[in-house]
From TrEMBL:
GO cellular component, one term: cytoplasm
KW Methyltransferase (keyword) present: yes
Pfam assignment, any one: Methyltransf_32
GO aspect biological process, one term: methylation
Domain called Methyltransferase: residue spans: 158-294
GO molecular function: methyltransferase activity
Descriptive protein name: Methyltransferase domain-containing protein
Source organism of the structure: Asaccharospora irregularis DSM 2635
Keywords attached to this entry: Methyltransferase, Transferase
InterPro entries linked to this entry: Methyltranfer_dom (IPR025714), SAM-dependent_MTases_sf (IPR029063)
Ranges in coiled-coil conformation: none
Amino acid sequence: MNKQSIGKLNVFFMGLTQRNSENKDFFKSMEIIFKSGRKEFKGIVKEEEGLYNFNFKGKTDLYKFTDLLKAITKEAENYDSITLKYIERGTTVVIEGDNKKVNVKYVDNKESVDQIDEFTASQIKNRDYYVKVGQANELLKEIGVLTKEGKIKNDKIRKYNQIDHFVELIDKILKEMKTKESITILDCACGKSYLSFVLNFYIKEVLKKNCYFIGIDYSDTVIEASKKMANNLGYKNMTFIKEDLTNYTPDSDVDLVISLHACDIATDMAIGLGIRAKSEAIVVVPCCHKELLSQYSYNDMEPILKHGVFKARFADLITDGLRTLLLEGNGYDTSVVEYISPLDTPKNLMIRAIKTKEKNETAIAEYKDLKGKFGVEPTLEKLIY
């Protein structure tokens, strides 16, 4: 390639260097094809512990990224043209150059399957999934929704529907964060982090937004399992920490706190952490409620509450109602929606909260009034103040 084209190539490589610096956690590989006449010479680049392994003509060298591009530029001087594909999660940057011109284009990375088996097609035909079979096969296989052959597992259809519906219900929240360069999500009592993995895929590879995830759990087993899955998927933008939620303080801003079916006061720990961290949004799907069941009393309703089932259900209502009031008191606009069918689980409410102001004194007064009427002392209040 002539000097003029090499100069233009270097200009595009400057942009690529900046992209790599900002998006390093999303890098997957690079493919380079040099052409001389009809002959092609292919090179492959893989990341190796922060450096870049360039395999070309049977030789492998390790470089820093800027030095790698210098080596590629120098090699391009010996050929008629170059095609470089910089592949990251969700997007491929293609730089093409010859002696006449050099240009760049951006291509969406989309996995596809030639054919979905009849059973899978019949099970997913009634829903337009946000995280789709075909496009997200690698992810869905890793979290156990699909078999190695790409067929949906009969016993995982409900799980697939649940996690995809969670994405649907917070999609608007995610899209309203469009002005942010990156979204940081904290998954409280994360377990095996299936929800975080699905959101990671959706935000980065569907919405084309950079994102980072922190998973917190007190179990060594689930933390190690999550780390293994992240490594298998190449999701370098995820950190998993063994810690009690009441002791954890994030060392950077958090945009969204999530928690799915964290038992009893673990949901309160998640909400409390979100409020203390001044998270822009908090979304939780509570599980069992035990704390207030033994605390509350309401004499006017005793003829009804003498029945154990009614007393337990009313305890659930008080618990989630007081949670929403505390969120509102701390400046969050809240909404409560049905997450999934009660036929799947009776614990099917989702609380969504968006930070809009510093305080809401009216909500705080309402909370204190109801707390007094029921004679309860919710843990969540102690975790906030």
